[in-house]
Amino acid sequence: MCAVRRNLGHVVGCLPGAQLVDVVDAQTFQGELNRKGGAVKVSYQGTARIVDTGEDEGRATVTVKADGREIGGQGAVRATLTLSVAADSNARTMVGI
Fold first, then answer.
1. Mean pLDDT in consecutive groups of 10 residues from the start of the chain, 97 residues
2. How far apart are the first and last CA of the chain?
3. Do residues 60 and 53 make contact, with C-beta atoms less than 8 angstroms apart?
4. Contact, 32 vs 13, CB < 8 A?
5. Positions of E strands within the chain
6. pTM, rounded to two decimals
7. pLDDT at 47
8. Cα angle: 87, vertex 30, 33; to 5 degrees
9. pLDDT value at position 81?
């Protein structure tokens, strides 16, 4: 699980449009999320907190709760994500969201 926290920038890269901006502490992170759907583009900035972690037979899971505000708008977003990290048979790291 510590490897996930040390390499959070790599894990964040698995979520399209997400960017790690700052590490507040071991459980709290600030970032941005940019999404585009057709002609509509929206950007958020917010805070994510690790609320639960676990390890079981070569798989680590992290549950993250995030809150964000729309940049230049009045929208808001709230999400709970469960990420899993495990090695596959080819010694690659697989990340599930």
1. 56 80 90 91 94 85 92 93 81 74
2. 15
3. yes
4. no
5. 18-23, 28-37, 40-56, 59-70, 76-87, 93-96
6. 0.74
7. 96
8. 75
9. 87
DSSP code of residue 25: S
Q: What single letter denotes the amino acid at residue 41?
A: K
Q: What is the arrangement of strands in the sheet containing 93-96, beginning at the earlier edge strand?
A: 18-23, 28-37, 40-56, 59-70, 76-87, 93-96
Residue 1 has what pLDDT?
A: 47
- 16-51 as b/e, with b when 16 or more CB fall inside 10 Å? eebebeeeeeeeebebebeeeeeeeebbbebbbebe
- The C-alpha atoms of residue 58 and residue 72 are separated, in whole angstroms, by 42
Length of the chain in terms of residues written? 97
Closest CA to 49 of 73, 78, 17, 75: 78
Contact 44, 69 (CB under 8 A): yes
